[in-house]
């Protein structure tokens, strides 16, 4: 288990919590009520600030229930919270339904998943080695 320092910038902010033991995503909650018209997007504040450790990234994922029941999803899914970021964990939501949707203050709007990662040393070369796929484009590995 990794310890994540967290700061709330308002009393309305909720510390992310896991719904059940073993869940990968901790619920993020809105601090304000927001209404989204069809196809409208908005940056929704959580008033939560985190200090992700070096070697980890915080990934903001949509909530499947919110997507299925209300047509609300995270627009830039997954959103990325880098180790050096200390600002408000905002969530860009979009309403993909054909009706206005209102989300209450305190409602679960997304999930925060912590993931370990490796960085790369990008080395420019004149040629790349051959592969089975080669330079085939999107969908080139599937069969019809």
From TrEMBL:
Cofactor(s) demanded: Mg(2+)
Oxidoreductase keyword on record: no
Keyword field: Hydrolase, Magnesium, Metal-binding, Nucleotide metabolism, Plasmid
Coiled-coil stretches: none
One protein family per Pfam: dUTPase
Pathway: Pyrimidine metabolism; dUMP biosynthesis; dUMP from dCTP (dUTP route): step 2/2
CDD domains, per the entry: trimeric_dUTPase (cd07557)
Domain of life of the native organism: Bacteria
InterPro entries per record: dUTPase (IPR008181), dUTPase-like (IPR029054), dUTPase-like_sf (IPR036157), dUTPase_trimeric (IPR033704)
Binding site for substrate: 63-65, 76, 80-82
First-tier enzyme category under EC: hydrolase
Domain (dUTPase-like): residue spans on this chain: 13-142
Catalytic activity: dUTP + H2O = dUMP + diphosphate + H(+)
Keyword NAD in annotation: no
Assigned EC number: 3.6.1.23
Family, similarity comment: Belongs to the dUTPase family.
Functional summary from the UniProt entry: This enzyme is involved in nucleotide metabolism: it produces dUMP, the immediate precursor of thymidine nucleotides and it decreases the intracellular concentration of dUTP so that uracil cannot be incorporated into DNA.
HAMAP family with a match to the protein in the record: dUTPase_bact (MF_00116)
Name the record gives this protein: Deoxyuridine 5'-triphosphate nucleotidohydrolase
Native source organism of the sequence: Frondihabitans sucicola
């Amino acid at each position: 288990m990794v310890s994540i320092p967290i700061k709330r910038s308002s009393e309305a902010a909720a510390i992310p919590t896991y719904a059940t033991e073993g869940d990968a995503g901790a619920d993020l909650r809105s601090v304000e009520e927001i209404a989204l018209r069809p196809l409208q997007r908005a940056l929704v504040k959580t008033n939560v600030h985190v200090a992700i450790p070096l070697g980890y990234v915080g990934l903001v994922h949509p909530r499947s229930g919110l997507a299925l029941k209300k047509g609300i999803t995270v627009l830039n899914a997954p959103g990325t919270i880098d180790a050096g970021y200390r600002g408000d964990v905002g969530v860009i939501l979009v309403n993909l339904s054909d009706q206005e949707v209102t989300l209450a203050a305190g409602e679960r709007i997304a999930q925060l998943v912590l993931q370990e990662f490796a960085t790369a040393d990008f080395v420019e070369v004149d040629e790349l080695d051959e592969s089975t796929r080669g330079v085939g484009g999107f969908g080139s590995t599937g069969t019809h």
